[in-house]
Write a structure and sequence with these properties.
This protein is an alpha+beta fold. It has five helices and six strands, in the order ββββααβααβα.
Amino acid sequence: MFQMWTILPKASSFREKRCSHVSLQGGDLSSTMAARLVPNVSSKEGESQCEEKHAVLLSPVGKLEISGCETGLHEIKLPKMSVLPSGRAESSAACEVCEGAEEMTEPLKQCTAWLRAYFCEPARMASLPLPAFHHPLLRRDSFTRQVLWTLLRDVKFGEAVSYKQLAVLAGNSRAARAVGGAMRSNPIPIIIPCHRVICSSGQSGNYGGGNLMKEWLLSHEKLQKEKLAY
């Protein structure tokens, strides 16, 4: 049973791809890191294909495979965790790019810098820009996109929300199951924080990197948020 989280109050009523970029800016960690984000989505005729680059970041939860182009970030692929990292969720280990450092595009550099801060120096996240996103799922006008943007904008570091509550926040109170589908489709986990969406019962629920990783990420955020409060 996963019982360490207080759910937010109920809200009121890849390869080479052709896709458009979504531009995001950073902000205050506690309130504005994603609060004023408006998707900058465009699709132009004759748009050229991406030249996709790859990098691997060695993190406290394993190797994160990151892909993107000059325009933006395509995907973050999570490893499956079979055991928890040793010790508490206190990520003192440095995050290092272990593959692809020599060919990183600017969005990949921004992504790895943001992830290093997330794991090792959360206080720095507020001063770092989020990378532009360049994935077709975030371009299409769909409920899935609406859910992912709502999650990024409204559910902050150290918080958690239920599937049903996120459905309400996204504008459809009956779409809790669709919210679960959106979480499974999320191409940019950790940055778009699908690990912060849990069951109404308090259980962690499913996660692409496995339940152990989801619980570790939530524990990490809880601990770091408490430290930042002092």
